[in-house]
From TrEMBL:
This is Cytochrome b561 and DOMON domain-containing protein. Residues 155-354 form the Cytochrome b561 domain. Residues 374-387 have a biased composition (Low complexity). InterPro entries: AIR12_DOMON (IPR045265), Cyt_b561/ferric_Rdtase_TM (IPR006593), DOMON_domain (IPR005018), UCP037471 (IPR017214). The lineage of its organism: Eukaryota, Viridiplantae, Streptophyta, Embryophyta, Tracheophyta. It holds the Pfam family Cytochrom_B561. The chain crosses the membrane at residues 191-212, 224-246, 266-284, 296-317, 329-354. Heme b binds at residues 193, 229, 262, 298. One of its GO terms (cellular component) is membrane.
């Protein structure tokens, strides 16, 4: 819930920002293109910092002209200093040093909610006031905000890198008050991306591997197991490709947000999935001398793809901030059920294998006749996705 009123000023409009329980109140004066605003943020540490800024060119952290509030390391009083977040900040090559902004900042100040008796603590609310002269006829502004745990001297340190912290960017028109639709679009794409990839890489792909490992030994099915396996895997790869493409699109729409590990795992899983699909086109006949090498390759790449896919689904839950959600619980239940089925089938396969081995030994010793038949499952159990 946002407020247009503070202890010292009243503003015309306000909006609640999408992360960190932050909000902005503002008044825009069209006749001279001046923007009066107040940013409301909260500290997450007594020695931390809270910052707000404007990016003149794009909706990302790099390039932001920021005002950062934190306790003075000498006096403990709240100070507000200007910073320019150039590309070196993201690389953390050197401490972030305060310097004058190259935008027309008319005035700025910061106060703690609660007046002079207020202290900086975890959860303390800070109000950052600024009056900025905007470029004429340019009222759509990219706002960037964040908060961190520590300040070294007068240099704010890196902020946390959770999904919310990396998404603390929004764009809205200060004249009309209408927010840009991109944030909503990204949220929808993120949801679709997560659902598609959890189903494809996280469930269908392991199910396809299970069908190849256990159904291929059921003689009554004949070649049906192969068509079931191929159908499941191709469906998984198709859905996974759509999810992968949405992820690439989200990355393009959010240039300031990067998830290194999730991205790398996604690329690796997609490449292995593509190799598996191509391998289907070059599958040698069972009598071909290269068949055994193809099978080894297919098994190794297939299982690697399954493992990477499942690991990246869990990584995706963390990236989306859903590490303790019902969605993750539901996925874990589905995956646990699949693992339980695998264990049961594996035990059954070994029981049949041991029984048939014993029968074969007795047959060789002449204790039973060669006409006795075992079950309809071959004794050889091959690990891996179909050969």
């Amino acid at each position: 819930h946002c407020s247009t009123t503070t202890a010292t000023k009243t503003f015309q409009k306000c909006t609640t920002l999408p992360t960190q329980q932050a909000s902005i109140a503002w008044t825009f004066h069209p006749h001279n293109a001046t923007l009066d605003l107040c940013f409301f943020g909260t500290f997450i540490s007594p020695s931390g910092w809270v910052g707000w800024g404007i990016n003149p060119t794009s909706a990302e952290m790099t390039g932001t002209r920021a005002l950062v509030a934190f306790p003075d390391p000498n006096s403990g009083q709240l100070v507000l200093l200007p910073y320019i977040l150039d590309p070196s900040v993201k690389l953390q090559k050197s401490p972030l040093l305060s310097r004058p902004l190259d935008i027309h900042l008319i005035s700025s100040s910061a106060t703690l909610y609660g007046g002079k008796m207020a202290t900086i603590h975890n959860g303390a609310t800070v109000q950052i006031y600024a009056t900025v002269k905007l470029v004429p006829n340019k009222t759509k502004i990219h706002h960037v905000w964040n908060r961190g745990l520590y300040v070294q001297g007068y240099s704010p340190t890196i902020h946390p890198t959770t999904s919310n912290d990396l998404s603390s960017i929004t764009t809205f028109d200060v004249l009309s008050g209408s927010a840009a639709t991109q944030h909503n679009n990204v949220d929808m794409l993120k949801l679709v991306h997560g659902i598609l990839n959890a189903i494809s890489w996280g469930l269908l792909l392991p199910m396809g591997a299970v069908t190849a490992r256990y159904l291929r030994h059921v003689q009554a099915l004949g070649p049906t197991w192969f068509y079931v396996h191929s159908g499941i895997q191709l469906s998984a790869f198709f859905l996974g490709t759509v999810g992968f493409a949405i992820g690439i699109r989200m990355g393009a729409m959010s240039p300031g947000v990067t998830y290194g590990l999730h991205r790398k795992l996604g690329f690796a899983a997609f490449c292995l999935g593509a190799l598996q699909t191509l391998a289907l086109l070059f599958r040698p006949k069972t009598t071909h001398k290269f068949r055994k090498y193809w099978k080894s390759y297919h098994h190794f790449v297939g299982y690697s793809c399954v493992v990477l896919g499942v690991v990246n689904v869990f990584q995706g839950f963390e990236v989306m901030g859903e590490g303790r959600s019902y969605a993750k619980l539901g996925y874990c239940l589905c995956l646990s059920t699949l693992v339980g089925i695998c264990i049961a089938l594996e035990v059954n396969s070994w029981v049949i294998f041991c029984r048939k081995s014993k029968e074969e030994k007795m047959r060789r010793e002449g204790l039973i006749s060669g006409s006795d038949k075992g079950s309809g499952i071959h004794s050889g159990t091959h690990s891996g996705i179909h050969g």
